[in-house]
Amino acid sequence: MSGKRFLDFKEEVKEALEQNRPVVALESTIIAHGMPYPENLEIAQEVENIIRRYGVVPATIAVIEGKIKIGLAKEELELLATSKKVLKASRRDLSIIIARGLTASTTVAATMVVAHLAGIQVFVTGGIGGAHRGAEKTFDISADLQELAKTPVVVVCAGAKAILDLSLTLEYLETMGVPIIGFKTDEFPAFYSRESGLKVHYMVNDEKEGVKVIKTQWSLGLKGGLVIANPIPEKFALPKDYMDRVIEEALGKAEKVGIKGKELTPFLLNKINELSEGKSLKANIELVKNNALVGAKIALELEK
Question: For the chain, what is the domain count?
């Protein structure tokens, strides 16, 4: 692919891909725009370490001064975690940011694009984007959903971000033909909470069963990715009714000050953390770590 000329591989990632060893992609928006410092840097490093403990190579993805980095050095992680000048790149932004030599974190959609370009099949994140509340009128729908419909990457997540309209998000994904696979659950997780009241399309009981579905999908020539919906561990989960109240209050504050578009999700995550007295941040950290564990095991199984 000609687009590969824009990729700058970290040596350990390059070697792993050349030797057909398992690699897991990680997004960087969670570092630059999803969590406060120093927790954002700590979790970025810890997630990479979790993946390495399973013999899998982590590849955190970002754009640094116009170069798409596949795997980040320590100082690059620190830059993303501390700089206020880091932009946020989805699919639509990549060409502009690269052409202008800018620095940006990558969203789920952009990370999927880059992971596929780099030859990485498994991607771990916290939660995917989706249809925002009221999207049936505003059409405020994340590019993540279209990306899932066309880019063959496995996305391990704790469902979609709880600030979204989860029912509408699932309807959209169903229309686009994206399989939603519950990992040891028949219910779509609601990010901070294990339950949403919404069923997944299918459930798998372990990584081996999940990989069998993944390989079958791609062997059939069906385009697009798959969502592995992995609920937050029970001991770290927050009650759904409690989080619903917190999210409603945060949404009200966003509407009051007129926050929209790209700025909405970071604003809401910050406000939810504030209103929950830090409980949501702790849950977010634990669910990402849990997704890293499952993603590493899936990547190992895929390489067999």
Answer: 1
